[in-house]
Design brief:
Keywords: Pyridoxal phosphate, Transferase. The protein is of the alpha/beta class. The protein folds into two domains: 269 residues, 3-Layer(aba) Sandwich (Aspartate Aminotransferase, domain 2), CATH 3.40.640; 133 residues, Aspartate Aminotransferase, domain 1. Helix content is 38%, strand content 13%. The protein has a seven-stranded mixed β-sheet, with helices on both faces. Helix 7 links the parallel strand 4 and strand 5. Helix 3 runs parallel beside helix 10 and helix 13 crosses helix 15. The longest helix is centred in the last third of the chain and has 21 residues. The radius of gyration is 22 Å and the shape is globular. It binds pyridoxal-5'-phosphate (PLP). The site of pyridoxal-5'-phosphate has 16 residues, from helix 4 and helix 5. Pyridoxal-5'-phosphate binds next to helix 4 and helix 5.
């Protein structure tokens, strides 16, 4: 059958090789190495002339099936699963850039990603230039002959800012640089990155995909839109690998050498998570809109930030890019840090924990936790306020969540 929808495709993605027992779940190949019949076969495998699994740091059948499922729903040229979302981001930049290059992004970023750019990669000579990605003109002005990519989060965490991705893609295209998007908050199903001109998608599959925070993982998705001849570092491989240049260099060099591979067990869990992604995401997004509406009406709350609210400045652009669902993360402000802590401590159902897109609803005070290593001035630039709480909404019955929030606000 042709033209299957997301959830059907995920459930029925074929194995690359038939399972000898007809197992309806890809088994967990929890092994390190694979044997070959002859020395010649081993040689061919190492030369890349006969694709086969050799060693599980490089590839493994359970991980490959997880990657195939993502490939089937995105139509991507290549998909790579890694040990975490941070591994996906760092491996991507280590592949496309080198010392003295620069990239353009915003300070409105996930805290660890900012730290990766500002400390880890800067020490190795990669410069990061920060701007306001919601103002495409400013982005264009920062690009020079050493710029390799524009990097954005489709909905930034925790500012919940939404940039115009098509506008950024047009700038990147005109300058022959990459548009790389962290789609952790809007994974495939919610957002079709390819349609909006995103060249490379990185995401933390720890969040939506894992299915209830069972395991840490990350994905790199190459949508096949970029001409790799335009990238100085990868240019020399293009004649050999064509559209697979980036993925080949990753798998045969950077990903292999860095060693941040996903474990087969995590690939199994995340593959199961994918089967229910659409159902969970639908429920959590509906819940979030209801809770945002409730918070907006509450006299205890000074402001609510959710791109799905009609009065959000990102409402229109979020609608264009993500349709009716604006994700399941919202922030709201109380009058002080003290009030935030008091509220958090009164919650009976909602859990105090640092994660997003668990099945359970989680709350955190970002300024004192995820962003605690940054000084006040930087926190302000990053849009992280002392009065702000972040709620990552789960799939519980929204009425129970609202009851819990109400008693904690009023109690
Ligand atoms: C959590 C997160 C990451 C990092 O993912 P890990 O799987 O924890 O390494 C990156 N980007 C965003 C937007 C995130 O929320």
């Amino acid at each position: 059958m042709k033209d299957l929808r997301f959830i059907t495709k995920i459930l029925h993605t074929k194995y690359l090789r038939e399972d000898s027992h007809g197992s309806l779940h890809m088994p967990v190949y929890d092994n390190v190495t694979f044997e070959f019949k002859t020395a010649e076969d081993l040689e061919l495998a190492f030369q890349g002339k006969k694709p086969s699994h050799m060693y599980s740091r490089i590839s493994n059948p359970t991980i490959e099936h997880f990657e195939q499922r993502i490939k089937s729903v995105t139509g991507a040229v290549g998909v790579l699963a890694l040990s975490s979302g941070m591994a996906a981001i760092s491996n991507t930049f280590l592949t496309i850039a080198k010392a003295q290059d620069n990239i353009i992004t915003s300070k409105h970023l996930f805290g660890n990603t900012y730290s990766l750019f500002e400390y880890t990669l800067r020490d190795w000579g990669l410069e990061t230039r920060y701007t306001d990605l919601t103002k495409p003109d400013q982005v264009a002005r920062l690009i020079d002959h050493k710029t390799k990519a524009i990097f954005l989060e489709t909905i930034t965490n925790p500012q919940l800012e939404v940039a115009d991705i098509k506008a950024l893609s047009e700038i990147a295209k005109a300058k022959n640089i990459l548009l790389i998007a962290d789609t952790t908050l809007t994974p495939p199903y919610l957002f079709s990155a390819r349609e909006f001109g995103v060249d490379i998608e990185t995401l933390s599959s720890t969040k939506w995909i894992s299915g209830g925070a069972t395991s840490v993982g990350g994905l790199i998705i190459d949508h096949g839109l970029y001409d790799w001849k335009q990238n100085e570092k990868l240019r020399r491989d293009v004649n050999k690998y064509g559209p697979f240049t980036f993925m080949t260099r990753l798998r045969r060099e950077v990903y292999r050498n860095i060693g941040a591979c996903m474990s087969p067990h995590n690939a199994y869990l995340q593959s199961l998570g994918l089967e229910t992604l659409a159902l969970r995401l639908d429920q959590a997004c509906v819940n979030t809109l209801k809770i945002a509406g409730f918070l907006k009406e509450s006299s205890h709350v000074s402001s609510v930030n959710y791109p799905g609210l009609r009065d959000s400045i990102y409402y229109e652009i979020a609608g264009k890019q993500f349709g009716e669902k604006s994700g399941a993360l919202l922030t709201f402000d109380l009058t002080s840090k003290n009030q935030c802590f008091k509220f958090m401590n009164k919650l009976q159902l909602i859990r105090r924990a640092t994660n997003l897109h668990d099945n359970k609803t989680l709350i955190i005070h970002p300024a004192s936790t995820i962003f605690c290593e940054y000084d006040d001035k930087l926190k302000q630039e990053m849009g992280v306020r002392d009065t702000m709480l972040r709620l990552a909404v789960g799939i519980e019955d929204s009425r129970d969540l609202i009851t819990d929030i109400q008693q904690a606000l009023e109690g």
